[in-house]
Specification:
eight-stranded mixed sheet; binds coenzyme A; Aminopeptidase; 2 domains
């Protein structure tokens, strides 16, 4: 076991490391969730294998687009930490970042974050979705990121209040130019190749009206995992469209809602969901995007 950060080597992440790093991330976040979950919530679970394989796919996608943004810390043959980051246009994004529980707080994370941040040299803006780990928050604030609390909506949608939403259609990768243009207007940088990954993984709904346009990726529970729109009215309609697809009885979680997006809290409250806190949106060189619900690792 490395006694200090001097005992580890920081090297680029390799394709074959990704499954090992996935388990490290699952264990790291599970340990953190055990410490930070509110009492009264169901016990946190270790990431399930199906979600693990999606994590592997997403990280390999980032490794293909941004090999210089993805780093591991090793001790001998053991991978003891990693940071994955990428750039889209002039935006740097930290996707994921973990040091093995038991080895945290010894300076390994500082070295990994420095390597990842270097990949963003020349970017004007940066963003990441932070956990509630005080060690992570210390690292990000010291690196100059502004902190914005994230709210989380939780519960079962009250189907009796669902409004009729018109002129929202199913989307596909053929909409990529439109999606990229909405991204530029809301978060200041297109998702570009990430739309290919996202359209494979989630239902996409799109609206194009003279009064506004927008899109949302929706998970099987009806939660929008990424939503961007040119105005709040369009954003609210897209969120209702997502909630309407929630299977009866499903408990859904919509995270990553900043105070710049009270419209989303209002939709959630109208659907009888409850508001909680989880984590922070950290930004540099920009304000929290709006109307916008960011993706946890592709932001
Ligand atoms: C976040 C993480 C990757 C950082 O890696 P690390 O090796 O622990 O980081 P470092 O040791 O370099 O830095 C931690 C800092 O917090 C300080 N620290 C240690 N324990 C602390 C505590 N309990 N509370 C607050 N600060 C603490 C350390 O002194 C250090 O600050 P310093 O460099 O100014 O002395 C790691 O802690 C981790 O995996 N956490 C769980 C997963 C997670 O939250 N990941 C981030 C997702 S956004």
């Amino acid at each position: 076991m490395p006694a200090s950060s001097q005992d580890v080597l920081i090297r680029p992440l390799r394709y074959d490391d990704v499954p090992v790093v996935e388990r490290l991330s699952a264990e790291g976040f599970h340990a953190l969730d055990l410490e930070t979950y509110p009492r009264g919530w169901p016990d946190p679970q270790l990431r399930a294998p199906d979600r693990g394989s999606r994590w592997v796919q997403r990280t390999r996608h980032l490794l293909e687009t941004d090999p210089a943004g993805c780093w591991v810390a090793t001790h001998g043959d053991d991978v003891v930490g990693f940071a994955t980051s990428f750039t889209r246009e002039l935006m740097w994004i930290l996707s994921s970042y973990v040091v093995r529980p038991g080895l945290q707080g010894r300076g390994i994370g500082a070295q990994l974050l420095a390597a990842a941040l270097q990949h963003g040299d020349g970017c004007l803006r940066g963003m990441l979705a932070a956990s509630d780990d005080p060690k992570a928050l210390r690292r990000y604030r010291v690196a100059g990121f502004e902190m914005h609390s994230q709210m989380l909506l939780h519960g079962e949608v009250d189907r009796s209040v669902l409004p009729v939403i018109e002129r929202v259609r199913e989307g596909s990768i053929g909409d990529r130019d439109l999606l990229d243009s909405i991204d530029r207007q809301t978060r200041g940088a297109a998702h570009g190749p990430d739309h290919e990954y996202l359209t494979d993984d989630f239902r996409l709904v799109v609206t194009e009206r003279t009064t506004g346009s927008g899109y949302a990726y929706v998970d099987p529970n009806g939660a929008p995992v990424l939503l961007a729109a040119t105005n709040r009215r369009t954003a609210s309609d897209l969120m209702w469209e997502a909630l309407a697809s929630s299977p009866p009885g499903a408990k859904l979680e919509i995270g990553h809602i900043t105070s710049a997006n009270h419209w989303a809290l209002d939709v959630g409250l109208a659907a009888r969901l409850s508001i909680h806190h989880r984590g922070y949106l950290m930004v540099r060189g920009m304000k929290p995007p709006s109307p916008y619900l960011h993706h946890g690792s592709l932001l």
